[in-house]
TrEMBL record:
Species of the source: Gavia stellata (Red-throated diver)
Topological category with respect to the lipid bilayer: Multi-pass membrane protein
Primary location group: membrane
Keyword match Translocase: yes
Sequence ranges assigned to domain Cation-transporting P-type ATPase N-terminal in this UniProt record: 163-222
One cellular component term from this protein's GO annotations in UniProt: late endosome membrane
The protein's Enzyme Commission number: 7.6.2.16
Function: ATP-driven pump involved in endocytosis-dependent polyamine transport. Uses ATP as an energy source to transfer polyamine precursor putrescine from the endosomal compartment to the cytosol.
Every P5B-type ATPase N-terminal domain range: 13-146
Domain P-type ATPase A: 267-392
Keyword RNA-binding (UniProt): no
Protein name: Polyamine-transporting ATPase 13A3
Length: 1223
C-alpha cells in the first residue's frame, strides 16, 4: 500500500493523538503463537506490556478507512501507545445531528426503531437500508469514521458549531421518538460510568505488572536453588503488597463511583416533537432533547442550555464557589436582530445560560404555561463533569526528574547485574561447575542486584508524608505530587479570600454630582439618600436570592445590600402563576428607614404605608462576568413608566461605558488614592431607559445595548483586610528563596498596595507597570512602561524621575538569588493577553520579575502558570477554589483552600482556609523527596553490598545461606527501610532546595563513594581471613576454635553436624562476609538518613533508632558471643575469638570512614565536582536562571521610564519588538 499521510484525532487539543490503521495478518499471528509457546509465555507478556509491538507483530499496515485495529500515540512528551478494535454499527445515517436516510420512514413517522438490537433481526432486504458505521472506543469516548476528514472523529453534541438562533428556531421543539433512538445509537447511554472492576480483573492486572513478574521469576529460581524460606518470605511480602494495592485501587474506584452516581439515574420529563411530555430515565437523554427542570430543583444529569425561565444553581462541584448563581435563558438573536448579533453557542462563553452536569438546581422561576425548559447539549463523558471524571480516571503521567532518574538508576543496576552474570558464567565454567548450577547461580545474581522490595520502599516515604499532611488538615488526592512539592520555587496566590479576608467591610461611599466628587460618606442608609439612584443601584444591582428564607449570594453583594438596610422579596410560585410572566424580585426599604414611621399612630400607619410604598422590581439581570468585570440589572420603580438600568463593576470598566461628561476629571486620581491604600473600589452607573422598551423587549435585549451611555454615579469603597498570618507566611517563603506572585481579579493598584502591605514587594522596591495596547488604526501593538509611584500623578506637571528611582541590578552570590532583584513588573489581564499575542519574546523576561497580575480572567491564570513553567519554575498555586480550578490543576502543586467538591480538580486541599498550609506542604514535600533519595540510595547500596558478598563467595564456589538471605532481607532491610522513612519534616523552610533528581553530582558522589568503601572493606576482610595462621578451606572436620584454644566459643556443636553442605555455605569467608556486610547495611542506613535541613534528625525518629540499636546489639552479640542454635540456623562456622575482634575493628573503621566520607561529600562534594568538571563555566540548567544571568548584562533591561516597546509590523516574525524612547 501507498504510504498514508499522518492522521490525528483530537487535533490541536490537549489529548491530541496520532492514529494508524492495521489489519489482522494470519501468518504473523501464527508466528507469534509459536513464539509464545517457545518462550514459555514470556513473549505474550512482552506484547501485553507493549501495545505497539502487539499490533505490529500480529497485524499489517492499512488505510484508516478499511482498518480493523487502530494504533494511537499521544503527541505529548510521553509518547504513550494505545490500541483499540474498530467495531461496526448499523445505522440509518452517518451524522446524528442530521436527519437519517429519507428512504426509511420509520423515523419520520415517530415509530421506535431500536437500531443495535433490531438490526440483527431484520431480514436481508431491510438490512440494505442501514449504513455500516465504523467506530472505536478509547478512554470512554467513541470515535466515529468521518468521510469528510478521512479520519476518525468524536461525535460532537450541540456545544459546537450551533448558532444561538438555531437553538431557538430549530432545536426548541424537541425530538421525535424515532430521531431520539437514532441519536442514541451514536451518543449511547447518558451516564458517567465509573465501573468498579471485579477483584479478579484487578488481580490479573496487578499480577501482570513487570515488577511482580520479576518477583515470580525470582521465586521460581530460588525454589529451584532450594532457597525455600526466602522464596516463601518474598511470596508472603508480595501477597501482602498485592492485597494492599488491590484494596487501595478498589477503594478509589468505589469512591469515584459514589461521587458520580448522584446524577446517574433520575427520572426526567422531556418534550417530544408533537408537544407531548414524556417521562424517561436520565440515561436515555441525548443532545437535542428538551428537558423540563422541576420547580423544586434537581441535580443535572447532563449539560443543557436554558431556553426559558430562570434557575438558581449551586455549582460548587465544578467551580468551588459555594455561592449560588442565577442562570437565565439564552436570548434569541433572531427576535431582535438589530439589538444583538447571532453567534455560535459555547458552554464556556454562554455559561450564565448553561446548566452543567452534576450541579444542583436549587430553585426555578418560570412562565405560566411555558415551564422552565433546557436543551440538552452534551451527555455522558462529554459533559463538564464527565471531562473532570475522565481526567481522574485517565490522568496524565507525572513527569518528574526523580522518577526518570530512578529508571536510569535501575538500568545501571541491570548493567551491573549483567557484568556479575558474565563473571559467574565464566568463573563457573573455569571451575567445571555443572551446567544446571551455572544457570541458577548466574540468574541468581540478577535477582540480587535488582532489589524486589524497591517499589514498596520508595512509596513508604510518600505514604508517611500523606499521613502527616492529613494530621495537619491537608488532604491529597495525588500522592506522587508530594515529592514534586519539595521542589517548588515559586508560588502564585489569589488575593481575595487567600491573602486577604474573604469578607469585605463597607468603608464608605463617594457619590458624584454634576461630574464632581462629593466628600466621602460613611453611611449609605441616610434619610437623604433613601430614594436616590445611588442607593437604588446598591439595592438592585446584585445576584442575591433567598434560599429557604435566608438571603444568599456573593459576599460583596451581601455586604453592600446589608449596608443600606433594605428588604428583598421574591415572588412565590402561586404569585408567578397568576401572571403571564416571571414576577420580578422586589426590593424596598425597611419601615425603620422612614423617619415619619416612628411618630405615626396605628390609624395613620395604613395611609403612611400607601404614601411611602417605594418599591423597585428587578426586571432583568445580566450576571457578573469575570471576563467583562461588571454586572447590570434593569429595574423599574413602582408606579414609574420608564425602566432604569443600573451597573456596577471595576471602576475603569464602568467609567469607559459612561458618558465622559459625567465622569469627574479627577476620577483616576481619586481611584488611585483609594487603591494605593489597599481599598477595593466598585463604581456605580445609571441610565434611564427609553419608554419604548417594553417588558418583553427587555427580556431579549443584548446587554451591550444597555451597558452604554451610562451616567457615572460614584464609588463604593470596600475594605479588604489582610489575613493575620499572611505577612509571616510570605516572609518565610522569601527567606527560603521561594518567589511569590499575586494573581487576582481585583484592581491593579489595589493589588500592588496589598503586595506591599504583605511584604511581597518590599518598601524600597520599584514597581514597573506594563500597559500593553493592541494594534489599532494601523499602529502596531505597544507597551508603555510606567513606574507605579509616578503613574497618573495629580499634579499639574509630572516631576522628572530621579536617577535613584531606576532599579538597581544586584549581583548575587548564588544563581538562586538572581530572581530577587529590586524591581517588579505589574500588569492587568488585558495587557497580559496583548503581550502573549504580540510580544512572545518578552514573556519570559516579564514573568521572571512579574509579581502582580491583576484583573486576570480564569483562563489567563492558567496561561500565567504555563508561562512560568516554560522557564523551568516549579510552580505552586494557592487559591480559594473560585475561578482558580484551571490554574490549580495546571500547577505542579495546586492547593485549594475550599473544602468543596471542586477540590477534586486540585491535588491538595486545606481544611483551614489559610495560606499557612503552603510552607507546611513544601516542608513535607522536601522531607518526602529527601526520604525518597535516602531510601533509593540505601536500596541501591543494599543490592550492591549483597552483590559484592555473593560475587566474592562465587569465586570460591560458595554463596550466602538461605537463612542468611532471610535475616538480611527481612530483619535488617525491611525494618530499616520502613522506619528510616518516618523522619518528620524540619520545623522551618531553609533557603536551600533539595536536588530534583538522582543523577546529580553530590548524590552520585555519595553513592559511588559508599560503594567503593563497602567493596574495599569486604574485599579486605575476604582476603585477610585467608592470611590467618589458622585458616584452611573449611570442612566438617575443621575446628579453628580449638586450634587457638578460644575459651569464649563453643567448639563442640559442629561435631553433631550430620547434614551434608551441598552449596558449600559454611566456610570462614562466608561467616566473615556475613558479619561485615550485616554491619555495612546498618552503617549506610545511618549515613544516608539525613536530617537537617529538610528532615528532623535521626535521633528524633524513635522507631528507626530502636530498630538500628536492637539490630546492632543482636549482631554484636552473635558475633562476639556465638550461640550454637543461632549459628546453626544462620549456617555460620566457629572462628577464633581473636578474628571476631578483628572483624569488629574492620566494622568500626568502615563506619568511621563512611561517616567522614559522607560528611566530606556533603560539604565539599559540589565544589570538588564543579572544579573537576569545569561546571563553573557552564550555564545554569534552569531557563529562568540562565535568563537572569543574561539580563544582568543587558543595558536595555529593565525598560527605562517614559519608554515604549513596540511590536514590529508584519511581515516581521510575531513576537519581535523594538524599544523606542518617548520624548
Amino acid at each position: 500500500m501507498e504510504k498514508e499521510e499522518k492522521k490525528f484525532v483530537n487535533k490541536a487539543e490537549e489529548d491530541e493523538m496520532e492514529i494508524y490503521g492495521y489489519d489482522l495478518c494470519r501468518w504473523k499471528l501464527v508466528l507469534v503463537i509459536v513464539g509464545v509457546i517457545c518462550s514459555g509465555g514470556f513473549l505474550l507478556l512482552l506484547l501485553y506490556w507493549m501495545p505497539q509491538w502487539r499490533v505490529k507483530a500480529t497485524c499489517k499496515r492499512t488505510t484508516l478507512k478499511d482498518c480493523e485495529v487502530v494504533l494511537l500515540r499521544t503527541t505529548d512528551e510521553f509518547k504513550i501507545w494505545f490500541c483499540a478494535k474498530v467495531r461496526i454499527m448499523p445505522s440509518l445515517g452517518a451524522n446524528p445531528l442530521q436527519n437519517p436516510n429519507p428512504l426509511v420512514h420509520k423515523v419520520s413517522n415517530g415509530h421506535a426503531v431500536h437500531f443495535c438490537e433490531s438490526a440483527a433481526e431484520e431480514n436481508k432486504n431491510d438490512l440494505k437500508k442501514y449504513l455500516p458505521i465504523r467506530y472505536f472506543t478509547h478512554h470512554s469516548v467513541k470515535y466515529f469514521w468521518n468521510d469528510s476528514v478521512q479520519s476518525f472523529d468524536v461525535v460532537r453534541g450541540l456545544d459546537e458549531s450551533t448558532f444561538c438562533s438555531s437553538i431557538h428556531n430549530e432545536h426548541s421543539t424537541g425530538l421525535t421518538k424515532g430521531m431520539h433512538d437514532y441519536r442514541k445509537a451514536f451518543y449511547g447511554v447518558n451516564e458517567i460510568a465509573v465501573k468498579v472492576p471485579s477483584i479478579f480483573k484487578l488481580l490479573i492486572k496487578e499480577v501482570l505488572n513487570p515488577f511482580y513478574i520479576f518477583q515470580l521469576f525470582s521465586v521460581i529460581l530460588w525454589i529451584t536453588d532450594e532457597y525455600h524460606y526466602y522464596a516463601l518470605a518474598i511470596v508472603i511480602m508480595s501477597v501482602i503488597s498485592i492485597v494492599s494495592s488491590l484494596y487501595t485501587i478498589r477503594k478509589q474506584y468505589v469512591m469515584l463511583h459514589d461521587m458520580v452516581a448522584a446524577h446517574s439515574i433520575v427520572r426526567v420529563s422531556v418534550c417530544r416533537g408533537n408537544q407531548e411530555i414524556e417521562e424517561i430515565l436520565s440515561t436515555d437523554l441525548v443532545p437535542g432533547d428538551i428537558m423540563l427542570i422541576p420547580s423544586n430543583g434537581t441535580i443535572m444529569p447532563c449539560d443543557a442550555v436554558l431556553l426559558s425561565g430562570t434557575c438558581i444553581v449551586n455549582e460548587s462541584m465544578l467551580t468551588g464557589e459555594s455561592v449560588p448563581v442565577t442562570k437565565i435563558n439564552l436570548p434569541n438573536p433572531s427576535e431582535y436582530p438589530k439589538a444583538m448579533g447571532d453567534e455560535i453557542y459555547s458552554p464556556e462563553v454562554h455559561k450564565r445560560h448553561t446548566l452543567f452536569c452534576g450541579t444542583n438546581v436549587i430553585q426555578t422561576r418560570f412562565y405560566t404555561g411555558e415551564l422552565v425548559k433546557a436543551l440538552v447539549v452534551r451527555t455522558g463523558f462529554s459533559t463538564a463533569k464527565g471531562q473532570l471524571v475522565r481526567s481522574i480516571l485517565y490522568p496524565k503521567p507525572t513527569d518528574f526528574k526523580l522518577y526518570r532518574d530512578a529508571y536510569l538508576f535501575l538500568l545501571s543496576l541491570v548493567v551491573v547485574a549483567g557484568i556479575g552474570f558474565l563473571y559467574t558464567v565464566v568463573n563457573s565454567i573455569l571451575n567445571e561447575v555443572p551446567a544446571h548450577t551455572i544457570i541458577i547461580e548466574s540468574l541468581d545474581i540478577i535477582t540480587i542486584t535488582v532489589p524486589p522490595a524497591l517499589p514498596a520502599a520508595m512509596t513508604a516515604g510518600i505514604v508517611y508524608a500523606q499521613r502527616r499532611l492529613k494530621k495537619i488538615g491537608i488532604f491529597c488526592i495525588s500522592p506522587q505530587r508530594i515529592n514534586i512539592c519539595g521542589q517548588l520555587n515559586l508560588v502564585c496566590f489569589d488575593k481575595t479570600g487567600t491573602l486577604t479576608e474573604d469578607g469585605l467591610d463597607l468603608w464608605g461611599i463617594q457619590r458624584v454630582e454634576s461630574a464632581r466628587f462629593l466628600l466621602p460618606e460613611e453611611r449609605a442608609c441616610s434619610e437623604s439618600l433613601l430614594k436616590s439612584e445611588f442607593v437604588a443601584c446598591m439595592a438592585t444591582c446584585h445576584s442575591l436570592t433567598k434560599i429557604e428564607g435566608v438571603l444568599s449570594g456573593d459576599p460583596l453583594d451581601l455586604k453592600m445590600f446589608e449596608a443600606i438596610g433594605w428588604i428583598l422579596e421574591e415572588a412565590t410560585e402561586e404569585e408567578t402563576a397568576l401572571h403571564n410572566r416571571i414576577m420580578p424580585t422586589v426590593v424596598r426599604p425597611s419601615k425603620q428607614l422612614f423617619p415619619e414611621s416612628k411618630q405615626a399612630t396605628n390609624q395613620e400607619m395604613e395611609l403612611f404605608e400607601l404614601s411611602t410604598s417605594y418599591e423597585i422590581g428587578i426586571v432583568r439581570q445580566f450576571p457578573f462576568s469575570s471576563v467583562l468585570q461588571r454586572m447590570c440589572v434593569i429595574a423599574r420603580v413602582l408606579g414609574e413608566k420608564r425602566m432604569d438600568a443600573y451597573m456596577k463593576g471595576a471602576p475603569e470598566v464602568i467609567a469607559s461605558l459612561c458618558k465622559q461628561e459625567t465622569v469627574p476629571v479627577d476620577f483616576e486620581c481619586v481611584l488611585e488614592e483609594y487603591t494605593k491604600q489597599g481599598f477595593r473600589v466598585i463604581a456605580l452607573a445609571h441610565r434611564k431607559l427609553e419608554s419604548k422598551l417594553t417588558w418583553h423587549k427587555v427580556q431579549t435585549i443584548n446587554r451591550d445595548a444597555i451597558e452604554s451611555n451610562m451616567d457615572f454615579m460614584g464609588l463604593i469603597i470596600m475594605q479588604n483586610k489582610l489575613k493575620q498570618e499572611t505577612p509571616a507566611v510570605l516572609e518565610d517563603l522569601h527567606k527560603a528563596n521561594i518567589r511569590t506572585v499575586m494573581v487576582t481579579g481585583d484592581n491593579m493598584l489595589t493589588a500592588i498596595s496589598v503586595a506591599r502591605d504583605c511584604g511581597m514587594i518590599l518598601p524600597q522596591d520599584k514597581v514597573i507597570i506594563a500597559e500593553a495596547l493592541p494594534p489599532k488604526d494601523g499602529q502596531a501593538a505597544r507597551i508603555n512602561w510606567h513606574y507605579a509611584d509616578t503613574l497618573a500623578k495629580c499634579t499639574s506637571s509630572s516631576p522628572a524621575i530621579n536617577s535613584e528611582d531606576i532599579p538597581v541590578k544586584l549581583v548575587h552570590e548564588s544563581l538562586e538569588d538572581l530572581q530577587m532583584t529590586k524591581y517588579h513588573f505589574a500588569m492587568n489581564g488585558k495587557s497580559f493577553a496583548v503581550i502573549l499575542e504580540h510580544f512572545q519574546d518578552l514573556v519570559p523576561k516579564l514573568v521572571l520579575h512579574g509579581t502582580v497580575f491583576a484583573r486576570m480572567a480564569p483562563d489567563q491564570k492558567t496561561q500565567l502558570v504555563e508561562a512560568l513553567q516554560n522557564v523551568d519554575y516549579y510552580v505552586g498555586m494557592c487559591g480559594d477554589g473560585a475561578n482558580d480550578c484551571g490554574a490549580l490543576k495546571r500547577a505542579h502543586g495546586g492547593i485549594s483552600l475550599s473544602e468543596l467538591e471542586a477540590s477534586v480538580a486540585s491535588p491538595f486541599t486545606s481544611r483551614t482556609p489559610s495560606i499557612s498550609c503552603v510552607p507546611k506542604l513544601i516542608r513535607e514535600g522536601r522531607a518526602a523527596l529527601i526520604t525518597s533519595f535516602c531510601v533509593f540510595k540505601f536500596m541501591a547500596l543494599y543490592s550492591i553490598i549483597q552483590y559484592i558478598s555473593v560475587t566474592l563467595l562465587y569465586s570460591i564456589l560458595s554463596n550466602l545461606g538461605d537463612f542468611q538471605f532471610l535475616f538480611i532481607d527481612l530483619a535488617i532491610i525491611l525494618v530499616v527501610v520502613f522506619t528510616m522513612s518516618l523522619n518528620p519534616a524540619w520545623k522551618e523552610l531553609v533557603a536551600r532546595r533539595p536536588p530534583s533528581g538522582l543523577i546529580s553530582g553530590p548524590l552520585l558522589c555519595s553513592v559511588l563513594s559508599q560503594i567503593i568503601i563497602c567493596l574495599a572493606f569486604q574485599t579486605f576482610g575476604f582476603f585477610w581471613v585467608k592470611q590467618q595462621s589458622w585458616y584452611e578451606p573449611w570442612t566438617i572436620e575443621s575446628d579453628a576454635c580449638n586450634v587457638l584454644d578460644a575459651t569464649n566459643t563453643s567448639s563442640s556443636y559442629h561435631e553433631n553436624e550430620t547434614l551434608h553442605d551441598e552449596h558449600y555455605i559454611k566456610n570462614y569467608e562466608n561467616t566473615t562476609l556475613f558479619f561485615i556486610s550485616s554491619f555495612q547495611y546498618l552503617i549506610v542506613a545511618i549515613v544516608f538518613s539525613k536530617g537537617k535541613p529538610f528532615r528532623q534528625p535521626c535521633y528524633k525518629n524513635f522507631l528507626f533508632v530502636m530498630s538500628v540499636m536492637v539490630l546492632y546489639v543482636f549482631i554484636f552479640f552473635i558475633m562476639l558471643h556465638p550461640v550454637e542454635s543461632i549459628d546453626t540456623f544462620l549456617e555460620l562456622v566457629c572462628v577464633p575469638y581473636e578474628w571476631r575482634l578483628r572483624i569488629l575493628i574492620i566494622v568500626i573503621l568502615n563506619a568511621i570512614v563512611s561517616v567522614l566520607t559522607e560528611e566530606a561529600v556533603d560539604r565539599c562534594g559540589v565544589c570538588f565536582l564543579s572544579s573537576l568538571f569545569g561546571c563553573r563555566e557552564r550555564t545554569p540548567k534552569a531557563k529562568y536562571m540562565h535568563l537572569a544571568q543574561e539580563l544582568l548584562v543587558d543595558p536595555e533591561w529593565p525598560p527605562k521610564p517614559r519608554t515604549t516597546t513596540e511590536a514590529k509590523v508584519p511581515p516581521q516574525e510575531n513576537g519581535s519588538y523594538q524599544i523606542i524612547t518617548v520624548t
